[in-house]
Design a protein that fits this description.
CATH class: Alpha Beta
Shape: globular
CATH topology: Rossmann fold
Order of helices and strands: EHEHEHEHHEEEEEEEH
Mean pLDDT: 94
Strand content: 25-35%
Helix content: 25-40%
Largest sheet: 9 strands, mixed
Radius of gyration: 16 Å
Low-confidence stretches: none
Number of helices: 6
Oligomer: single chain
CATH architecture: 3-Layer(aba) Sandwich
Strand order of the largest sheet: 2-1-3-4-11-10-9-6-7
Number of domains: 1
Amino acid sequence: MKRALFVWGGWDGHTPQQSAQVFAAWLETQGYGVEVAERLEVFADAGKLHGLHLIVPVWTMGQLSPEQEQGLCGAVAAGAGLAGWHGTMGDSFRNSTTYQWMTGGQFVAHPGDIRPAYDVHIVDREHAITRGLADFALRDSEQYYMHVDPANHVLATTTFAGGVVMPAVWTRAWGRGRVAYASFGHTYKDFDVPEARAIVQRSMLWASR
């Protein structure tokens, strides 16, 4: 049985508990043994992390200790998968530059705050995460400017007013581990959109060792 760890907490506005529950319950239907933790100290437990197939850090802002950052990044480098969305990975641990390097990006701003709607455009239609999915719209959510690593493999983008094209879904490698990220997911309600939910579900399966 594959083993996954969800670690949820941080700012409640990103609905970390509800969002974690959406995907933890689904992973169990895929045959995973799922553990859910509510404290960052688990990231310092190298023995536990190195036995995992997938890590999903559902944590907004917050701060990792050096031991926690080393434990998490080291486990992914050794082969554990890492997957998440805006409220989990893109707006987290802003003082941990190695974590940001591993995830491939960091939230900068959401101009316009809650937008009536914005589009996500699939640019790699052959990847396992996006194959068969159409472009889609997210409603009553936020559109994010990101700092992004040019080494990311971009699967989907979003375009801001004025024509700025911003990566919205990407994958990358961190040592022997796979990393997958989706910039949407302001709250769990974003995952009522079937394509958005499918991208995160497939990201977790793809990233798992």
